[in-house]
Amino acid sequence: MTAVETVPREELEKLQLARLRETVGHALKTPFYSRRLGGIGISRPEDIESLEDLKKIPYTSKDDLRSAFPYGMLSIPLDDVVRLHASSGTTGTPTVIYHNQHDLDAWTALSARSILCTGAQRRDVFQNMMTYGLFTGGLGLHYGAEAAGLLVIPASSGNTKRQFKLMKDFGTTVVHATPSYMLHLASRMEAEGIRLEDLALKKALVGAEPHSEDIRRKIEELFSIDVYNSYGLSEMNGPGVAFECVFKQGMHVWEDNYIMEIIDRESLDQVEDGEYGELVLTTLCRQATPLLRYRTRDITAVYPDKCPCGRTHRRIQRFTGRTDDMLIINGVNVFPSQIEEVIMAMPEIGTNYQIVVQKMGALDKLIVKTEVGKNIFTDDTRDLKALSSRIAENLKVSISINPTVELHEPGFLPVAEGKAVRVLDQRPRM
């Protein structure tokens, strides 16, 4: 554990203020922020006198990044840029983040800290099953694991047969993957002739997609390992923004690198610790593409108490959803995470599911498709009908909507090797 992880809050806030001024200095060199900050009377770093002054600055959105494409957010000469990453899975103009060598070194150090706080050690073998490329998931923890001294296997995503072979051949002890891919691996073990005793696996670091506590428990039970939740987004570098420690009681946001705010989605005012709202982040250690008060759209809350590990960096709770992935079904607000919590708490359910929304006349129709365990999927339709009804009843209690539930045999639903596509909204666009 590094000294900055346990620094007293007063000293941490002094460090944040100093770094915020530096960040504002870099931001003023960008075409976008020079206009925005100039419009509110901030023309030099010294105009930021306290952390409270951050609240004077307007929020930055994903649309702002797109409107500034390609170089409107760049604060340094292009000759000094050594890498860029772009958002994945979007249509139209991407969001692009540039890095100089300083930025990559800071990100690497943060990723190494994140990996080590889960209890990983130099003797561990780290198999990275995240996609490499413009997506930040692969490269982000790759360099962090190397800096932490782990042996890194850059396996990337997919090719399940090869993943198992690498795990067996090199005695992989730690893996990095999406929760959905970990569930897919578990579902393929029998077909690939893999037994738990064939593997040396101890830990899984999962991220890149929201998942429930029940999903974590299911992965832990299937592999007999510890699973640690992580959080990152390409606009804030990628993985390493927040990570669980060995106590697995929320993710520590590394506040020497980020200023964290939780705001009410309607009023946009800051809420108290313990109250749910949208996470807003400000970079403190990035020079090439500084971002001030970036709205992540992710919904969470800050734990008001201290972590037993002794770190002073505050923790955020598991995300309940996003402000922009909320489904409005016949006037009712529904987060996909609510549906996942219900179905994954049922032992009969398998490792894959899909949420489909369709238009039936003037009304919306919610269809929940899920695979069931091999021992459940039988020729006795009465048992399946009873299970389907029970799932529908449990969902109605949670989301106030009566869905159609479809049960399928294992392997029926498509498997995503990257981020899982859990929601298919097939309603016609207005």
From TrEMBL:
<dbReference type="InterPro" id="IPR000873">
    <property type="entry name" value="AMP-dep_synth/lig_dom"/>
</dbReference>
<dbReference type="InterPro" id="IPR028154">
    <property type="entry name" value="AMP-dep_Lig_C"/>
</dbReference>
<dbReference type="InterPro" id="IPR051414">
    <property type="entry name" value="Adenylate-forming_Reductase"/>
</dbReference>
<keyword id="KW-0596">Phosphopantetheine</keyword>
<dbReference type="GO" id="GO:0000166">
    <property type="term" value="F:nucleotide binding"/>
</dbReference>
<comment type="similarity">
    <text>Belongs to the phenylacetyl-CoA ligase family.</text>
</comment>
<dbReference type="GO" id="GO:0047475">
    <property type="term" value="F:phenylacetate-CoA ligase activity"/>
</dbReference>
<dbReference type="Pfam" id="PF14535">
    <property type="entry name" value="AMP-binding_C_2"/>
</dbReference>
<dbReference type="InterPro" id="IPR045851">
    <property type="entry name" value="AMP-bd_C_sf"/>
</dbReference>
<comment type="pathway">
    <text>Aromatic compound metabolism; phenylacetate degradation.</text>
</comment>
<keyword id="KW-0547">Nucleotide-binding</keyword>
<keyword id="KW-0597">Phosphoprotein</keyword>
<feature type="domain" description="AMP-dependent synthetase/ligase">
    <location>
        <begin position="76"/>
        <end position="281"/>
    </location>
</feature>
<keyword id="KW-0436">Ligase</keyword>
<protein>
    <recommendedName>
        <fullName>Phenylacetate-coenzyme A ligase</fullName>
        <ecNumber>6.2.1.30</ecNumber>
    </recommendedName>
</protein>
<dbReference type="InterPro" id="IPR011880">
    <property type="entry name" value="PA_CoA_ligase"/>
</dbReference>
<comment type="function">
    <text>Catalyzes the activation of phenylacetic acid (PA) to phenylacetyl-CoA (PA-CoA).</text>
</comment>
<dbReference type="Pfam" id="PF00501">
    <property type="entry name" value="AMP-binding"/>
</dbReference>
<feature type="domain" description="AMP-dependent ligase C-terminal">
    <location>
        <begin position="331"/>
        <end position="427"/>
    </location>
</feature>
<dbReference type="InterPro" id="IPR042099">
    <property type="entry name" value="ANL_N_sf"/>
</dbReference>
<dbReference type="GO" id="GO:0010124">
    <property type="term" value="P:phenylacetate catabolic process"/>
</dbReference>
<comment type="subunit">
    <text>Monomer.</text>
</comment>
